Amino acid sequence: MSPNVQIAALSGLAIVLVALAIYIALRVHGTPEKRERKRRLSVNRLGRLGDALITEVSESIIYYSYTLRGVQYTASQDVSTLRDRLPADPERLIGVASIKYAPNNPYNSILLCEEWSGLRMADRKAG
């Protein structure tokens, strides 16, 4: 085989190996949505319960704060993939809620996942 053919064959093999590595990496790590779902379910399964205060709700994000062992945490959760679990009027969520947090990383917390909800709806009566 001539050197040019060898270089072309090795280049082709390198391209195939890089493409295979990228494919494997994406399958293992998944899309950002799959990674977030996996994180939520892990916190739900292994997490501890705590109390939080929901301070603001937007179309797809809930902002909240909580205190654990004397440390104040402020966090948010993207709930765009969980919209079907929210009330029609998200403002009703502002107030006290329950959270689950990872014991080894208390900043890793959730208000809501596919299998659990710590949301409580505030009773907003007119008058």
Nutshell version of this structure?
The chain is of the alpha+beta class and 127 residues long.
Q: How many structural domains in the coordinates?
A: 2
Can you tell me the CATH architecture of the largest domain? Beta Barrel
CATH topology of the largest domain: OB fold (Dihydrolipoamide Acetyltransferase, E2P)
Q: Rg to the nearest angstrom?
A: 23 Å
Largest sheet: 5 strands, antiparallel
Distance between the termini: 89 Å
CATH class of the largest domain: Mainly Beta
Helix and strand topology:
Layout: H1 3-29, H2 32-46, E1 48-57, E2 61-68, E3 71-78, E4 95-102, E5 105-110
Antiparallel strand pairs: 1-2, 1-4, 2-3, 4-5
How would you portray this structure in words?
It is built from two helices and five strands, in the order ααβββββ. The chain is an alpha+beta fold. It folds into two domains: 1-30; 32-110, Beta Barrel (OB fold (Dihydrolipoamide Acetyltransferase, E2P)). Strands 3-2-1-4-5 form a five-stranded antiparallel β-sheet. Strand 2 (61-68) and strand 3 (71-78) form a beta hairpin. The longest helix has 27 residues, at 3-29. The protein starts with a helix and ends in a 17-residue tail after the last strand. 18% of the residues are buried. The model has no long low-confidence stretch (mean pLDDT 90).
